[in-house]
Amino acid sequence: MIAFTQEGEGPALLFIHGFCESKVMWKDFIGDFSRDHTVYCLDLPGFGESPLSGNHISLEETAVLIQEWLEVQGLVQPIVIGHSLGGYVTLALAELMGIGLKGIGLFHSTAFPDDEGKKHTRNKTIAFIKKHGVDKFMDSFVPPLFAEQQRLAQATRIEELIKEGKKSSKNGVLAFLAAMRDRKDRMEVWMNFPGPKLMIAGEFDMAVKLEASRKHEPFTSHYHELEGVGHMGMFEAPELTKGIVRDFLDDFSQ
């Protein structure tokens, strides 16, 4: 079962959350878009209200689940925008469905796989959560997602995200850590996707480094770098990122 929200009327627009997030992260972000789109926000398995049966899931399996969900909902050629892990899922879905998607967006995400250093960090995180649990992990995980100069002003938001993240199931968190660690290079998918493509990158994003994002730019129809922003542009620069997404969506109506 995939839990989701639906708001508005018009062409389908799907937002996919990141790691240890849920569909509620988009609640202050989507209002403007529901005036001319049917906006869907889902919970990935193991997060929010979507259960994960078992202890393993791959990005490819996640993409199949979402494709099946799209078919059940009767959604044809949605525009899909994913944050972080949600971007990895978006690319797996694009590889699976091709022109079955109208457009795709990476919101602080990348088509590149983990390098060896990042894989080592994932393994350390897996070991930490197995030993100490999700709650203790979330306390230290969320603050660095924001640019350092933003953290004081964003203290309430950070607490909200920590609280929401603690609702994530332990098996879901561990399964997606392994799925992110083991994901394949999908730069060819990004390069060859025929529809419009959006990438939003943060100047101080420690999770997806700016130099990696810039390697996507030649193959990206809408590329944006946000000054003074970390990994959470929808909260750190909400009006700016809404405007960027709006410009991207306007491409489809021309």
UniProtKB/TrEMBL annotation:
Gene Ontology terms for molecular function: transferase activity
UniProt cross-references to InterPro entries, sorted A to Z: AB_hydrolase_1 (IPR000073), AB_hydrolase_fold (IPR029058), AB_hydrolase_sf (IPR050266)
One GO CC term, this protein: membrane
Keywords: Transferase
Record flagged with keyword Signal: no
Origin: domain of life: Bacteria
Pfam family, one: Abhydrolase_6
Transferase among keywords: yes
Domain AB hydrolase-1: 13-239
Record SUPFAM superfamilies: alpha/beta-Hydrolases
Family annotation (PANTHER family): 2-SUCCINYL-6-HYDROXY-2,4-CYCLOHEXADIENE-1-CARBOXYLATE SYNTHASE-RELATED, MONOACYLGLYCEROL LIPASE
Stated name of the protein: Acetoin dehydrogenase E2 subunit dihydrolipoyllysine-residue acetyltransferase
The species this protein was found in: Cecembia lonarensis (strain CCUG 58316 / KCTC 22772 / LW9)
